[in-house]
Amino acid sequence: MRLVRPGAGNPALAVSCALTALVFAAVKTVPLGHEAYEVGLGLLPYPFRALFVGATEPTRVALMMDATDLVALPAVLLAWRWGRSEAAPVSG
What we know:
This protein has 5 helices and 2 strands, in the order βαααααβ. It has helices at 6-9, 12-29, 31-43, 46-52, 74-85, and strands spanning 2-4, 88-90. The model has no long low-confidence stretch (mean pLDDT 84).
């Protein structure tokens, strides 16, 4: 096992942070992203609800579309910087 700095030579950290920020922003500001989130999150528990509770159709999740939530986006930069500074074990 060797230690590698995730941000130093591994693009997975940067890609995951960028995707997190983009999806969060889309859900909060773009109607199609908002709709996809509501439907998708409602579909996730459906198999379990159908099996254990007898649900016959998925539920719809209610989400408030609020662009002011975007003030949380700088937290992604903090996560990226913290990830770059940590060493993570990598097999190989």
